[in-house]
Structure formats: structure tokens, C-alpha cells
Design a protein that fits this description.
It comes from Cryobacterium cheniae. The chain is mostly beta strands. The protein has three helices and 34 strands.
Length: about 475
């Protein structure tokens, strides 16, 4: 038998060499199994999670100017109903809620504070398809507010000319008196719009002119007036590009005689001409007062017979009567509730639905010891600020105090830094957070302006009504909140 090795020997395949043909399939199956388990785990985890916040939206600028702003929270799932009791806001403010599919609307009752960080937390939020709940949270910070004031300057320069009066702009968080946005030899008053400033200026003979200044630059616009005369009660509707005022002809002026005749000037009107606001039957009207309804083009006018009317100068200009009242006292902050005064009562007229409400105000702690003066309503719940003059022993004139009162409490919110200084006027900010108080120093001299006379050295102090602090003041008077 031939036992010699073959010329072409075949070596037996080692065991390890045969395995690679089977392992790739096994590894693939294992990987697929792992992925399936992961996907199943993620799906189970996702199904067991409550809704999550996808986005949040709020108009921050409007939140400190208009009542009842809203925060829109959008979740990643359709939401079950959410009660207002599930929502916590810091700083605290009452809210209401509505749900539409994935959107939760949180509506704040009232108006928000300037320069404030708000945290909104919604607990036990459930979807319409799952049992799991979660907590949604969102933070936002409200904006600062511009502060304008008029500074009159009776000094003369080296050439003997009077130094110009100026309107300055700063902010609540700013320092000093801010930047000059308008200057003229004699400024009677001004009104602020979103991107413009309107100012009444006086010539040497005390006749009035009306200028509009753009904050973006460019030439000032001289608004046509009926002739030589006086302009009073300049007011504005900032978001609607409207100003209104009353014009009176100067003695001896030729042509038609105007007697506190109301006009409206529309900055967007191509004609560039003011429009007269007429009375019943299109007859000329004499007004005691006028004011724009907040954030609207509608004007409230009070004629010389004490009758109040609503009129839309951009519409049909028809008059809607509001009854007779002794005086207008502005609007409740954050609302369209007009405050009106009569000899025996104070009331509000809701210009949304026309409802009237007689106010039963709680007594102030100063009622029995000081003489009451101007009253400003701070809320529809009857909170108010009032100026009092109280007799003193050390000085000849009474001391000025402003008390804030509501149904539960009454306290002094402001007294001038010097007992010899006195309060000339005050008003409330559009969101009801601050009082702006004009004070006159003891040694002040009158400036002799024929309309809205003022005094040298006047300052405006800003009082935070909720915190009881007054750590911000600016030189000048007529803060734009009081316009």
C-alpha cells in the first residue's frame, strides 16, 4: 500500500475557522433585539410622562400697559382642563385659565408691574390620553418704563437770551434726569406717542404753536392752528398716532372766534390738517375737558354744559352721550372705566359696556385731621390716593400729605422731604404701580406762563405703592403719566 503523502494534501478546517460564517447573523439578531427593547422602553417611558412645555408667549410691552394680559403656554400633548387653582404666580396675582387642545392660556387679572420677574407654575397638568401628570413652569421679566418730565429754565445765557425749556426722557431704572428729546424757548406742555412727541410752545406774545417731533430724527412738523390763540388740554393716544387739544382764539384775532374748541390731529392723515370735533347737530362745541380712552382712537369730551360724550374722530364722529357730571377724573389703571365726580359722589362708567357704578370709598385716616384735596382712584375695588393739607406749628403753610386707602387699611404714602415744600399735583402710572408726585420747594419762584404755570426747582418723585418706597425722582414736572 502506498502510504506516501499526496501531492495535494487537504488540511482539515480548524473548528475556529468555521464559526465566522454563523456569528454575523447572531450579532445582527442580538442588536435588533436590543434596539426593540430600547424603543419599547422609551415608548413606555414617554407614555408614562405627563405633558411638557413646548413654547411660551406673552406680549411683555402690553402686559404693563393694558389690563388682563395673557400668557400662552403650548404643551407637547393635548391637555385636559386646567383650573385656576393649579396655577401659582410669584409675585402673586389672580389668574383665570382656558385650555384649547395643546394650548393653556393663563390670563392675569389686572395689570403687571414694571421691572419684575414673574414665575408661573402649573401643577398636576394632565393630557387627554394619558394618566401621568407633570408641572409646567415659565419665567419672564416685564420691561422698564420710560419717564418724561418738563424742565422750565428761567435763567439767561451770556448773550442775555433765555435758556430753553426741555423735555427729558429717562427710565425707572435709570439715573439722573435723562436725555433731552425736545427743547424750545418756552414749552407749555407736551404729550408722548409711541415714536413721537407733541409739544405746545409759546411765542413772546404768549400765543401758542404746536409741534410734532419724531424720535427717529428729521424736521419737526408744525401743526396748523386756526390763528393766534391758546392751546390747552393736550392729550394723546400713543398707539393710535392721535393727539387732541382745545383751541381758544386770542383777543382781537380776526375771523371765526374759537372758544375751547376741540381738535384732533392724526399723524397718519395725509392732509396734515387737524379736524374739529363738533357737538350735537354738527354745531361748534366748547369743552371743559377731554381725554382718549386708553389704547383706542375714541375720545371722551365734556362740554361747557357738563355733558359727557364719546366720539370716534376716525369714524362717523357721531356723539354717544354719557350723561352729565361735574368733572372727569381720568381712568382706573389698566381699564376703560372712566372716573367721574359729582358734588355728592364719585362713580365710574365702564366704556366697554356702559355700566355705571357708584363708589362707596372707605374713610381715610386723615379725614378728621386734615383738609382733603385731589383724589385719584387706583383700582375698581375702591383703593384710592388722596392729597391732604394739614396744619403745622413750625411753618406758616400747611403740610402736604398723600394717603392711600382701601377697604382694609389707610396710611400715609408720601410727605415731602422738607416740611416747607408742598405738593402741587400727582397722578398714577398706567399700571397702577407708581404715584408721580410734583413738589414745589419753599423758595421757588413762579415762571409766569399764562397756561400751566410752574415754579423753579420743581421735582417729580415716584412712589411704589405696593412697597411704600420712593427711591426715584427727576427734576421738573408734568410727568407724561399725568398728561
Amino acid at each position: 500500500m502506498n502510504r506516501e503523502p499526496s501531492a495535494y494534501p487537504v488540511a482539515p478546517a480548524p473548528e475556529a475557522a468555521a464559526r465566522p460564517a454563523r456569528w454575523p447573523g447572531r450579532r445582527f439578531l442580538v442588536a435588533i433585539a436590543v434596539l426593540v427593547l430600547l424603543v419599547a422602553g422609551l415608548a413606555a417611558a414617554n407614555f408614562s410622562q405627563g405633558p411638557r412645555l413646548a413654547s411660551a408667549e406673552i406680549n411683555l410691552g402690553a402686559s404693563v400697559l393694558r389690563g388682563n394680559p395673557r400668557l400662552l403656554l403650548t404643551a407637547n400633548q393635548a391637555l385636559a382642563e386646567v383650573a385656576a387653582s393649579q396655577v401659582t404666580v410669584s409675585p402673586a396675582i389672580e389668574v383665570s385659565t382656558t385650555v384649547t387642545d395643546r394650548e393653556l392660556t393663563v390670563r392675569f387679572v389686572g395689570i403687571l408691574r414694571y421691572n419684575t420677574r414673574y414665575t408661573v407654575t402649573v401643577t398636576d397638568v394632565a393630557s387627554t390620553t394619558r394618566d401621568a401628570t407633570s408641572t409646567l413652569e415659565h419665567e419672564f421679566t416685564t420691561p422698564d418704563s420710560d419717564i418724561y418730565a418738563l424742565q422750565r429754565d428761567s435763567r439767561v445765557d451770556d448773550a442775555g437770551a433765555k435758556r430753553p425749556d426741555t423735555v427729558r426722557r429717562t427710565t425707572l431704572q435709570g439715573r439722573g434726569d435723562g436725555d433731552i428729546v425736545f427743547g424750545a424757548p418756552r414749552i407749555q406742555q407736551y404729550a408722548v406717542l409711541e415714536n413721537h412727541l407733541a409739544a405746545v410752545t409759546l411765542a413772546d406774545d404768549d400765543t401758542a404753536g404746536l409741534e410734532v417731533v419724531s424720535f427717529a430724527g428729521g424736521a419737526n412738523v408744525q401743526v396748523p392752528v386756526p390763528g393766534a390763540g391758546a392751546i390747552e388740554n393736550l392729550v394723546s393716544s400713543p398707539s393710535k398716532y392721535l393727539i387732541a387739544y382745545a383751541f381758544t382764539s386770542a383777543p382781537g384775532a380776526e375771523g371765526r372766534r374759537y372758544d375751547r374748541t376741540p381738535f384732533v390731529y392724526d399723524l397718519t392723515e395725509h392732509s396734515g390738517l387737524p379736524a374739529e370735533v363738533t357737538g350735537v347737530g354738527g354745531l361748534p362745541m366748547t369743552v371743559m375737558d377731554l381725554a382718549f380712552v386708553p389704547d383706542s382712537a375714541t375720545l371722551v369730551v365734556q362740554n361747557d354744559g357738563q355733558s359727557l360724550f364719546l366720539v370716534d374722530p376716525r369714524g362717523d364722529a357721531e356723539l354717544t352721550p354719557l350723561g352729565e357730571h361735574a368733572a372727569m377724573r381720568g381712568f382706573v389703571p389698566g381699564t376703560r372705566a372712566l372716573v367721574v365726580a359729582d358734588p355728592d359722589q364719585l362713580s365710574t362708567i365702564d366704556l366697554v359696556d356702559g355700566a355705571g357704578t357708584t363708589l362707596d370709598l372707605a374713610p381715610s385716616l386723615l379725614d378728621g385731621s386734615a383738609d382733603p384735596g385731589k383724589l385719584v382712584l387706583l383700582s375698581e375695588q375702591g383703593r384710592y390716593a388722596r392729597l391732604f393739607l394739614q396744619g403745622t406749628v413750625d411753618i406758616d403753610q400747611p403740610a402736604s400729605l398723600i394717603a392711600v386707602t382701601d377697604a382694609d387699611d389707610s396710611g400715609v404714602a408720601f410727605t415731602p422731604a422738607s416740611e416747607s415744600s408742598r405738593v402741587r399735583d400727582f397722578c398714577v402710572s398706567p399700571n397702577g404701580q407708581y404715584l408721580a408726585v410734583e413738589t414745589i420747594p419753599a423758595a421757588a419762584l413762579g415762571d409766569g406762563y399764562p397756561t400751566l404755570p410752574a415754579f423753579s426747582g420743581m421735582t417729580t418723585t415716584l412712589i411704589d405703592l405696593d412697597r411704600g418706597t420712593s427711591n426715584r425722582s427727576v427734576s421738573g414736572f408734568l410727568p407724561h403719566w399725568c398728561g
